[in-house]
Automatic annotation (TrEMBL):
Pfam families: Carboxyl_trans, Zn_ribbon_ACC. Its cofactor is Zn(2+). This is Acetyl-coenzyme A carboxylase carboxyl transferase subunit beta. Zn(2+) binds at residues 29, 32, 48, 51. It is found in: Cytoplasm. Its EC number is 2.1.3.15. A zinc finger (C4-type) spans 29-51. It comes from Pseudoroseomonas ludipueritiae. InterPro entries: AcCoA_carboxyl_beta, Acetyl_CoA_COase_Trfase_b_su, ClpP/crotonase-like_dom_sf, COA_CT_N, Znf-ACC. Residues 25-293 form the CoA carboxyltransferase N-terminal domain.
């Protein structure tokens, strides 16, 4: 231990009455290593202003960036925690508690409803920071709840995915979330409502292998990793060198897996446009045009 930094510096700073400088004012871009001032990073929605790298963001930020002011977060039903009483190096129950405390949420998905540029929508967002956004019973429950809410509100369902796949600590229970989420999103489609998937980095494993590939529209953020198994596993299995950019958003767009790759700054506007194309002003229903009541006269201010 260095006594100067441990003891002397804090003392000097106290004497001088100087406030400690927070060490999180600058962030380093993991792609280009440039330093970015935190306010610039917030302004750019956590996209590097130097190289355009889209950094991973929290589920709550997704919701804020996507929905208009005044949205409401939904309380999610509790799923049975630790159904197998699983233990590896540590108990799953302990890992779960730790993740809950760190992320300030019960499981890896946030659900909210509100509007996107005035279009009603239900949004579910994965939190990659919560055990790698892995899909266990809690996440399955969240997707089912979001789908039911979309049907109830006659609103499109938009899911932002960021997941390492199934939550292995829940064994077969986590695998069951795959058909469960597929059925839930099918419900949305049967109600004639758009189901839009926005894939963020990374979207892999059981999430890719279930509802995430079944959207009406597939959007991804630039350079997002999207796939089922990891590239190294595939390379070892097929014994062939994989093409450059394999499993990246742009490659998948070229090969027809995605419909759009959209910059985070344009995501809200793009979603609003897609929703309006899919929902608004259907010529068969001319009465719909008058659906929105005229704005009431301005309140006496
Ligand atoms: Zn950068």
């Amino acid at each position: 231990m260095n006594w100067i930094s441990e003891w002397a510096l804090p003392k000097i700073q106290t004497w001088l009455g100087r406030k400690e400088v927070p060490d999180n004012l600058w962030h380093q871009c993991p792609a280009c290593n440039q330093m970015i001032f935190h306010k610039d990073l917030e302004r750019s929605l956590h996209v590097c202003p130097h190289c355009g790298h889209h950094m991973r963001i929290a589920a709550s930020q997704r919701i804020e960036y996507t929905l208009d002011e005044g949205f409401q977060r939904i309380e999610l039903p509790r799923a049975p925690a630790d159904p197998l009483r699983f233990r590896d190096q540590r108990r799953y129950a302990d890992r779960l508690k730790e993740a809950q405390a760190k992320a300030g949420m019960d499981d890896a998905v946030v659900v909210a409803h509100g509007a996107i540029d005035g279009h009603r929508a239900v949004v579910a967002a994965f939190e990659f920071g919560f055990m790698g956004g892995s899909m266990g019973a809690g996440v399955g429950e969240a997707i089912v709840t979001a789908a039911k809410l979309a049907v109830l509100q006659d609103a499109p369902l938009i899911v932002f995915t960021a997941s390492g796949g199934a939550r292995m600590q829940e064994g077969a229970v986590s695998l069951m979330q795959m058909p469960r989420t597929v059925i839930a999103t099918q419900m949305v489609k049967e109600a004639g409502l758009p189901f839009i998937v926005v894939m963020a980095d990374p979207t892999t494993g059981g999430v890719t292998a279930s509802f995430a590939m079944l959207g009406d529209i597939h959007i991804a953020e630039p350079n997002a990793l999207i796939g089922f198994a990891g590239a190294r596993v595939i390379e070892q299995t097929v014994r062939e060198k994989l093409p450059e950019g394999f499993q990246r958003a742009e490659y998948l767009l070229e090969h027809g897996i995605l419909d759009m790759v959209v910059h985070r700054g344009e995501m809200r506007a793009s979603l609003a446009r897609v929703i309006s194309l899919l929902r608004d002003k259907r010529p068969a229903e001319p009465a719909e045009a008058a659906e929105e009541p005229a704005a009431p006269p301005a309140a006496n201010a």
